[in-house]
Amino acid sequence: MTHPSDYDPEAVRFFDLAHEGAQIRSVAQIVDKLAPLAGNRPRSVIIYSPDHLARKSAELAVALAGPLNTPCVIVDKLPSYTGPLDVVVALTDRGDAPELARGLITAAGRGAEIICAPPARGPLLDDLPPTAFTVPALPTVAGFSPARVIATVTAVLDVLAGPDVPVAERISELAASIDEDIVRLSPERDATINPARGVRAFVDKHQVIHTAPPAGDPEHETGARAAELIAHLWSARGMASGYVDPADLPEVLNHNVTANTKDIFHDPYLDGPEEVIPLRILVWAARETDLTEAMAISADQATRRPFGRIDAALRLVIRALAATIYDAPTGDGA
C-alpha cells in the first residue's frame, strides 16, 4: 500500500496539466455532430461564460483564429438579442450554474444553436437544453483547462468556416502537439531539459511582468495574446503577475529604476529595512530579447501544427502553467 508521504507533490499538481492533450481530443469527439452547422453564416457567435479564465482563454482563440466570417462576442451574460440566427458557445467549470442554464434554455427556445463545454458532473448537466451539443468532460480532471476552452472555440469557428475544413483532424493534431510539450514538461525532467523549471527558477523572489515581442515582429500577436492570458492564469494560481504591452514597457522600466534608486536619506533604524522586490520580465514568443533582467521564451516553430498561431500560443500557455506547478529552487535562486 502506498503511503501518502510517498506521493510527489509536483507530480500530483501536474496531473491536470498532463491531461491537456486529452482535453483537446475530447473536443474532437463532437466535431462530426457539428456537421449540420458546417458552412453556416450565423448572425453572430456568442461565447458565453460566467468564468473569467474561460473568457480570457476564448479571447486568445478568437484573436488568433484569423479573419472571421461571422461577428463573435465574448460575454458573461447572454445578450437580449440572442435568437435563431445565432450560435451560442457556453463554457464553464461550474457544476451548478443556474443563471447559465436559464440563459441556454432561453436561447434554445428562441432557436439558437447551443454548444456547451460543461464539467463532468453537477446539476448543470441535467439542466442543459436537450438540443445542445455537449463537449465530453474528462471525469478525473478537476482544474480549469485553457486547452479545452481554446479547442472548443477553435473547433466551432472552423466548422462554421465550411465543410471543406478537416476540423477533427486539425484538432487531433493540436492535441498531439500539446502532448509533445507535456512530455518535456514532466516533473521527472530536471531543469536542464524542462523549460518550465527554468522559467520558475528565473522568476523566483521577483516581481513578474509578462510581455511579447514589439509590434511589427511576426510573433507579436501570438506572444501578446499568450502573455496576457498567462498573467491571469499565474495570478489565479497565487503567482501574482501582470501583462504589459511592449509599447508601454519603457515607461514601466523607468518607474522601476526610480523605485529601485537608493534613498540617501533612508535611516534603517528609523524607517525600517528597504524592501523593494526586484523585477523580471518574461517575453513570450520571442527567441531573444535585449531587455535586461528578461527571459525570451519561444514556441519552437519546428513542431508547429496546422493551427499555427493558436498551436504556438497554447504551447506557451501550457509551459507557463507548468512553471506554476514546480517548487521554487532551493538556495539563492536564479
UniProtKB/TrEMBL annotation:
BP GO terms, sorted: carbohydrate derivative metabolic process
One GO MF term attached to the UniProt entry: carbohydrate derivative binding
SUPFAM superfamilies to which the protein is assigned, alphabetical: SIS domain (SSF53697)
InterPro entries per UniProt: SIS_dom_sf
Protein name (Swiss-Prot/TrEMBL): Uncharacterized protein
Organism lineage string: Bacteria, Bacillati, Actinomycetota, Actinomycetes, Mycobacteriales
